[in-house]
Design brief:
This protein is of the alpha+beta class. 17% of the residues lie in helices and 38% in strands. The protein is built from four helices and twelve strands. The relative contact order is 0.23.
Amino acid sequence: MTRSLPVRLLLLVMALSAAPAVIMARAVEADPGPISEDAASALARMTRTLSASQFAVRIHTIRTYAGPNGEVLHIAHDSKTMFRRPDRFAIETTGDDGSSKLLYDGNTAVVFAIEQGRYARFPAAGNIDTVLTSIAERTGADFPVAELLSENPSDTVLSGIVRGSQVDVATIDGVRCRHFFFSQVPDAELELWTEDNERSLPRRLIVTYLTLPGRPILIAEISDWDFAIQASESAFAFDPPAGAIKVELASQARGVRGPGQLGIPR
């Protein structure tokens, strides 16, 4: 998980309440072994569900970062994501640091910074995971829950995990969910809430980065799953609005930026 998040946004901690901390501690103490059968089973069901040929989802994230004087600050983003496997996506993000669109039609990727009125278009090839990685490398943008939406989320989420089990159950937006805790010693701790049904869709993710200064946290709320979409080709195409200026992107980003800061020259 740590590779997909900008270090500059992950410098200070967002405190957890005492009760969840006690629950998590008890869960780890009760399950010192590897990934439990129920956790592995839930992730396997989630992988099957997310292997659908196309879907749409809404994601709200809150992250911590350090201000110019070391303040504990927070940044929020809302994104609407539409995937059509293997090689189509449309991602629209609105956040505290601006709004953007990312599009891929199987041949061309487009990055559009809406407030700046500037866009970059470049040839791309490969599946969704490959092109998202390419965009991240060229723009410095990050995709905080990319692992959950990858072609094999079970493998990517469990990469480096040494322990995992169910903590409790919870109700999220009226849906009963299972609350899991995973340990990626020594780097991170993950909490994942999945629907308690055959779909096992992810509804919430919290990542605590143990080895970064301040033990920062990412919180992602995942909602509005839609597997009934029938997206047309036009949904992934880009028609520049009047006055938009085309720019060129560097072959590789100089630094890592948040989702709303896509490295498009001003």
